[in-house]
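Quiz preparation item.
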């Protein structure tokens, strides 16, 4: 898809479809919206009066454009004003997704109240997100040529410059890359295969290091290895360094660490069969950091960035880890495994500590870690924990700028006593109350540098089609990590 800055007014732009957001506050058309409605001959007001579009019931409505140069107008439910780039990204994604399978090739998007450069860039990413079709990953015979049609050009009315949209296109490609990695089936993408994918980043100038079982065992990564010991596919630890990593000052190196469980059966503490097929998405964190590294390498190869992806399968094989087992993590602390389905935190603690030994001065991990995050925040919002909080504020700012919705949670270390073990330094899973916070408190025991933990268990993928995105992975976190790395590099 091409993104283009459009200087024309909404009424004068020549396009197949003009997308116009409508808000709850638009009970009476006013200002620029009233002017556009008058230019069309009143078709927007008529569509609302006739019930073709109702803010409480409809996501979109495709109507005749009346007297203006566009062929059609697409009314898009903007829900409410506010949230800047988040709103822009969501509106754009809804618009291009609505036009999939139609004859529309050109879309002009009017964000109305105006946006800054970040808002237009977020809309560009959203527009490309909306054309994503998960069925293209493996091919679906029943899909017709008409079903495969999508918007080919999006003109963003009022965008300040083309360079910002070109940048957004690269970020959007990264989001799609991460999305596709997360969507790949577990028989197609297992630890060894993900390592092969990572090797491909060498063509972008990155250096790629892959640790196998023997190397990890020699380093004492027993927490990570214990999770994967019951699977036929052996664990891998992937490390991707950008050219700027080695040249950076010792106190200015950013490591992004992503949970990579290619399939999570729960192990001996096996999950219910219902919805277990979704557990191929338990590698979404790893997919995000690999995609972010590739994107940053293409935009700013001198950024001091390393991506780390611990890759395992959590399976109930004959040699699988058992509840009650005790493992020694790389940092020397011992962990009593109470629940083998609390496996993500086990692979993360070794990966985070290893990243510190490689010189990371600041860390962010991103993981589909707890069902509690999905229960608390649904599929719109990602929870994060920070130590110190000012480092978390930088991650929050990156999310806000790119249109992702992050929300800070308290790192209540007062809960640490509930993770005490009679046999080891710590247990890997406590009681259900406060379990979202306790998972972060567990991780905090193994990190000594400024660190943020992002839980995307609810926001990494959709379990059903929605107007804004299809079922499956969303590429959550990719754009935030890219922006964070770019901003971090500028500060060095």
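Solution:
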């Amino acid at each position: 898809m091409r993104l283009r800055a459009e200087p024309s007014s909404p009424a004068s732009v020549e396009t197949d479809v003009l997308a116009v957001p409508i808000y709850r506050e638009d009970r009476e058309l006013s200002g620029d919206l009233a002017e556009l409605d008058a230019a069309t001959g009143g078709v927007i007001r008529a569509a609302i009066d006739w019930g073709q579009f109702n803010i409480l019931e409809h996501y979109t409505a495709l109507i005749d454009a009346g007297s203006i140069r566009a062929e059609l107008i697409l009314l898009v439910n903007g829900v409410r004003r506010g949230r800047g780039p988040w709103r822009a990204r969501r509106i754009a994604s809804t618009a291009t997704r609505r036009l999939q399978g139609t004859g529309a090739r050109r879309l002009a998007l009017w964000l109305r109240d105006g946006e800054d450069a970040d808002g237009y860039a977020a809309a560009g990413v959203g527009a490309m997100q909306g054309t994503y079709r998960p069925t293209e990953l493996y091919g679906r015979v029943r899909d017709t040529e008409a079903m495969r049609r999508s918007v080919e050009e999006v003109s963003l009315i009022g965008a300040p410059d083309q360079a910002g949209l070109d940048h957004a296109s690269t970020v959007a490609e990264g989001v799609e890359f991460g999305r596709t990695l997360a969507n790949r089936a577990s028989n197609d993408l297992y630890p060894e295969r993900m390592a092969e994918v990572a090797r491909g980043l060498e063509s972008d100038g990155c250096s790629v290091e892959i640790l196998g079982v023997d190397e990890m065992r020699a380093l004492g990564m027993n927490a990570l290895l214990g999770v994967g010991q019951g699977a036929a596919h052996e664990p891998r630890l992937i490390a991707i360094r950008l050219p700027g990593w080695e040249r950076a000052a010792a106190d200015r190196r950013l490591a992004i660490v992503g949970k990579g469980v290619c399939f999570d059966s729960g192990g001996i503490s096996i999950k219910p069969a219902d919805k277990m097929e979704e557990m191929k998405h338990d590698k979404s964190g790893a997919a995000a950091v690999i995609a972010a590294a590739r994107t940053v390498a293409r935009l700013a190869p001198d950024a001091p960035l390393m991506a780390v992806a611990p890759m395992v399968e959590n399976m109930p094989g004959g040699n699988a880890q058992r509840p009650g087992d005790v493992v020694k993590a790389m940092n020397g602390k011992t962990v009593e495994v109470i629940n083998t389905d609390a496996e993500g935190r086990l692979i993360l603690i070794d990966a985070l500590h290893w990243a510190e030994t490689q010189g990371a001065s600041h860390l962010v991990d991103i993981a589909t870690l707890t069902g509690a995050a999905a229960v608390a925040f649904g599929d719109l919002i990602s929870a994060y924990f920070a130590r110190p909080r000012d480092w978390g504020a930088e991650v929050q700012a990156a999310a806000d700028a790119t249109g992702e919705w992050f929300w800070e949670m308290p790192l209540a270390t007062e809960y640490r006593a509930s993770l005490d073990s009679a046999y080891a330094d710590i247990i890997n899973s406590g009681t259900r109350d406060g379990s979202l916070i306790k998972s972060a408190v567990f991780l905090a025991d193994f990190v000594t540098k400024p660190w943020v933990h992002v839980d995307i268990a609810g926001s990494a993928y959709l379990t059903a089609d929605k107007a804004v995105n299809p079922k499956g992975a969303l590429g959550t976190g990719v754009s935030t990590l890219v922006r964070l790395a770019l901003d971090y590099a500028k500060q060095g």
